[in-house]
Amino acid sequence: MHHFIFPSQDTWISSGSSTIDGESFKDQNFGRDQILEVKKEFFNNSFDHQTRALVNFNGTEFTELSKSVSDGTIASDAKYFLRLYEAEGNSEMTEEYKLAIQPISQSWVEGTGKFGDRPKNTNGCSWENRSNPIGGTEVKWNPKSIGNEKASGSLNIIGNFGQDEGDELQITVGGTEFRFVASDPSAIPVDDSPIFFHSTGSSAATYLNSLVTQINAASIGVTAVDGSSFLSLTASDAGINGNNISVDTGSGTTFSDVLTLEGGTDTVTSADGDGPSVLLVSQSVQSFANQSPDVEVEVTNMVNMWLQGQVENYGMLIRFSGSQETDSETFGHLKFFSRNTHTIYSPQLEVRWDDHLPCTGSNTGSLNQLVVSGLADNFIYMKGLRESYKVGERVKFRVESRKRYIQKTFTTSVQNVTGSFIPEGSGSYAIKDVATDEFIVPFSDFTKLSCDSDSNYFIQYLDGFYPDRVYKIQLKLKYDDGQEQVFDDDFEFIVKRK
């Protein structure tokens, strides 16, 4: 299942001032802008100021999400992803940069301002204030006493990394490099760095399991946690020294810097007027390397802390990571669609979990198993698909399967027709927006077909689907010989307003 919820408020804030008349942006509100700007401004070839975005998912939809997790409707091991969509591409970006997503520590008000307002609108959240009501008194971001904290960070393991001999993860702690190599290939570059070998994996999950075990056994100054699809690292020691930890991945002689642990601090009081204060208990970082600037970053740890009541949910802060936010080497002008956009690209919190019932045993009733050897020509289609559904419906979509061509037989007795079911793991679904031809729900490990005694099926929540738009279901069949067949036969439906 891929389930989506929208933000209850969002805005962006600026630490700078106008280069024309000097008017400060620090108390200006942009809560009604259709764009969230995360950028670095330069003046006379020198860095001048930065901006950040704030997004909060603490509305009715998040409350319903919390209830669903509590009662088991949504699995406790569900994954959560922040999705942001860039409006103008990456023409003004350096090829490589990182964005950090951190939990905000205090409440804030979205406000009613826009960047183009003249005179400027200060009603709401800004760089200096978390609220500033009209006719009232501004409420500043409070200086926050921060205790000794441990630096931390998460790294998504994508593709087939870790499944081949020689795939290597390098962790540099306090200037010392430690190498963790999958298996023991005969020819790897040798240097003076301590090196540890562990087994490859047949998947990201099995690779991470052996990697985490080896990292923790090595006692190098970081603690590793296996997140199934991501690696979480936390510095063993609190304090600013924890910031001096980086991670590279690659193989042979080719490596890329993918993660710098952040958040380690000594006891200080944060400076007043330096933007929103954030909690250092969780952080997600997404690295970009000459690719689409759309954000799809896992924030599972952060959301789970909110759901479990460990910290209050005041939303997320999005900014350039670490020193990249203020250096003169990284350039960036990102414009993400806000919740006020008139497009279908509003920010989203995406929830992914495996909700399918296995197509085995008593779940299949008296159905016959479809032959998926690769020799039979099969046909999969939707059964009882309605023309329209309403936003918020929980729909059980039925999927039928059979041989494409049925051989004729002759008999003098009454024949009972028994349906077929797609075997476990061989069927999945996806949903596209017809107008944009973009996947709303892609084929994934979270879109496997379920089965009961009537047929295969899948359940889809239509929260997060935009009304008055046409969507199309695609079905995929995997064969035992490795073939994959996609059935795209105009299985279309419209989502209407309630």
Structural notes for this entry:
This protein is mostly beta strands and 498 residues long. It has three domains: 215 residues, no CATH class; 109 residues, Sandwich (Immunoglobulin-like); 136 residues, Immunoglobulin-like (Sandwich). It is built from three helices and 34 strands. Strands 2, 3, 4, 6, 19, 21 and 22 form a seven-stranded antiparallel sheet that branches. It has a five-stranded mixed sheet with strand order 13-12-11-16-17. A five-stranded mixed sheet has the order 26-34-33-29-30, with no helix packed on it. The longest helix is centred in the middle third of the chain and has 15 residues. About 1% of the residues have low confidence.
Note the total helix count. Answer: 3
Question: Any idea how many domains?
Answer: 3
List segments where confidence is low: pLDDT < 50 over at least 5 consecutive residues.
267-273
* Largest beta-sheet details: 7 strands, antiparallel
Tags for this model:
Immunoglobulin-like; 38% strand; 3 domains; 7% helix; 3 helices; mainly beta; five-stranded mixed beta sheet; 498 residues; seven-stranded antiparallel beta sheet
